[in-house]
Write a structure and sequence with these properties.
The protein has a domain of about 80 residues. Helices cover about 65% and strands about 0% of the residues. Helix 4 runs antiparallel to helix 5, helix 7 crosses helix 8 and helix 10 runs antiparallel to helix 11. The longest helix is centred in the first third of the chain and has 14 residues.
Length: about 280
């Protein structure tokens, strides 16, 4: 019998260690190391290519900088100078898009000049890029672009101001909203002070429902220190007064996404409003 047991053991091999066995310690996952910031790119050779003025050299430099992204931000001023000097249409658009990818405020003044360019494609690209490069020059240019003839430029300008947290631009955004720049509502909702948030809420019924609620949604989900519970309850009350299927659908969506642990008072107001509008028309 013993020889047969030994033979089986030899075939099976040594016993496996089972996790959780007596005396065994659970294996702990090694703590994740924080990701190191991307190393800065040596932009000196690329700046030389830009300054050469040779289209092929400029194109190569722009391509490399776009790949580098924010790590190549040190070349933003040089790209801005190339733009100011003038390039072919394809290279101009490439330079604008490169500044967007570099995400450096140093590129904003050059981009601002292109928000009034006669070429629509370049205006659109410049306005879109300014939302990423930031700074006072970007904010001022985007505020001006709210009155552009092109609806896409106006819409991107409004969205850019919201992304830049340009609170001083809220009055301009209200003017744009009254002129049917629908994207302005969401930007206002991200930035408004209590009085401005109430003004936005007062537009329920006078502007398309989905436009106004694109701004009221961020109002409801902003932290209490930015928007008080009392104001949020007022906003919910306005939507409840509508008593429509649209308002019920919106409130139910807010109800589903309301963070656990957030204000129980606002949650109660939302729950009551959902029930009150359930039979809406």
């Amino acid at each position: 019998m013993t020889s047969r047991v030994l033979a089986v053991c030899a075939l099976v091999g040594p016993p496996l260690l089972v996790s959780g066995a007596a005396g065994a310690q659970p294996t702990k996952a090694a703590p994740k190391k924080p990701e190191a910031p991307a190393a800065k790119v040596d932009v000196a050779p690329l700046v030389k290519k830009l300054e050469s003025g040779a289209p092929d050299q400029v194109r190569e430099a722009l391509d490399e900088l776009r790949i580098a992204g924010p790590a190549g931000a040190g070349a933003a001023a040089a790209v801005g100078k190339v733009l100011a000097r003038g390039l072919s249409l394809p290279l101009t658009k490439s330079a604008i898009e490169t500044l967007a990818d570099l995400e450096s405020e140093a590129g904003s003044p050059a981009l601002a000049q292109y928000t009034t360019h006669r070429n629509l494609e370049l205006r659109r690209a410049a306005v879109k890029a300014l939302g990423r490069t930031k700074g006072a020059a970007a904010t001022a240019a985007l505020a001006r672009a709210l009155s552009d003839a092109d609806p896409m430029v106006r819409g991107n300008a409004a969205s850019g101001l919201g992304a830049l947290k340009a609170k001083d631009a809220v009055p301009d955004l209200f003017v744009a909203l009254d002129h049917r720049v629908n994207e302005a509502a969401a930007a206002i909702g991200q930035l408004c002070n209590p009085e401005q948030c109430e003004r936005l809420a007062s537009k329920v019924g006078s502007l398309p429902f989905d436009v106004v609620t694109s701004g009221l949604e961020p109002v409801l989900f902003r932290p209490t220190e930015a928007v008080s519970d009392e104001l949020k309850i007022k906003v919910v009350g306005r939507l409840r007064e509508l008593g429509t299927l649209e308002s019920n659908k919106f409130l139910r969506d807010v109800q589903k996404r309301w963070p656990s642990g957030s204000s129980p008072r606002v949650r109660q107001a939302i729950d009551q409003a959902v029930m009150a509008t359930a039979g809406g028309k």
